[in-house]
Write a structure and sequence with these properties.
The complex is a heterodimer. Chain A is mainly α. Chain A has four helices and no strands. The longest helix of chain A is centred in the C-terminal third of the chain and has 32 residues. The radius of gyration of chain A is 20 Å and the shape is elongated. Chain B is an all-alpha fold. Chain B starts with a helix and ends with a strand. Classes of the chains: A mainly alpha, B mainly alpha. The interface between A and B is large, with 88 and 99 residues.
Amino acid sequence: MMSATTAFGLCAAVAVGLGLYGLIANPQPLRKILAFNLLGSGVFLFFGVVARRGAAAAFGGDPVPQALVITGIVVAFSATALAVALLLRLFEATGSATLRDSMKRASTGAGSDPTDP
Amino acid sequence: MTIAAALEIALAVLVLGMAAWTIAARETFAAVVGFVAYGLLLALVWVRLDAVDVALTEAAIGGLSGILLVGAAARLRASETPAVAESPDGMLRVGAAVLATIVAAALAAGVLALPDPAPALAPAVAANIAATGLGNPVTSVLMAFRAMDTLLEKVVLLLALVGVWSLAPDRVWGGRPGPRHQADPLGVLAFLARLLPPVGIVVGIYIFWVGADHPGGAFQGGTILAAMWLLVMTAGLTDAPPVRLRWLRLVLIAGPAVFLVVGLAGLWLGDGFLSYPVAYAKLLIVTIEVAMTLTIAVTLGLLLAGAPERSA
């Protein structure tokens, strides 16, 4: 019979797959940020399963991977906040938030900041 | 199959359902709401995996991510339609689906092939935890055995904030972040922003303090403090401070600075960088954590407030 820990491990694998698909297939940058976070959470969950399996010495799980996951969540959040700020600035400066036309915008000179006098 | 196991498998299915919704939803706003729900369900999974410290982190950060992403989705709504027009063609979608399936299948095979009995560092932690004076093994790993990771993580938070600030246009350099929030002074938001912070601040400090021996810690506590600050700012009861303020910058570097000083002191008081003398280990760790909690609260609050947009 499949244990719950294994079920969560498979859940982690599928979350990574879904995140990878969304990262490529979703065109909006904010959706790509969401998808990347989904991918990352799958990796963290994989670590959580490894930690649970490593339960020993009266601990419910191996505390070393658990601590690494906490550090990972914090770093992922910082990167997300920076990515969102970049995206909002791009939207404010150019009036659009897409990835495709960035080369065209730069060549027509519209990439400069209209909010700066 | 026991009821607990059935519930856990149902939880896994629910988590995957929310994950699929996050990717497939038509509206970005709906996807963001799905992602927040996914984060909260994931926190339950962490509890079931006996990782309560991680669950607390996931729940706290999930809430902050929700504020960040919902705000961004609302501001980016005008760009939604042109971006959807750039959807990749069918071939690329199929290719992405095939690639994602291969990666997921490989990981699933890895999960099923994990060695039994699993290798673990838990016995090593159990053997050395007494030297840290702490009772929570996760805090002891974060603050002592792998203190370098935690120190660098705090530096990453600071670098992210510097990155966000550097996006400010020249004329508002060093100014106040984000738009000034307005809310009905007699409305529900303003009411909650007066009612919740006293409780939230006590809970945040408690979670940090109890983290030495039980689930909790500086990061989880600091996140709750940041949420309280954001609530008061969102309700318009106070304004975000201009980021050029000297005291603000001192608070921002206090956590990593105290950590670094204690770490360097370990070079001649202990056995090396970031090693604590056993007699003072707990005192030193709690001192670092006090500074870190304050720094984390202010850093997270300012990260969510965003780049400076007003010069006043």
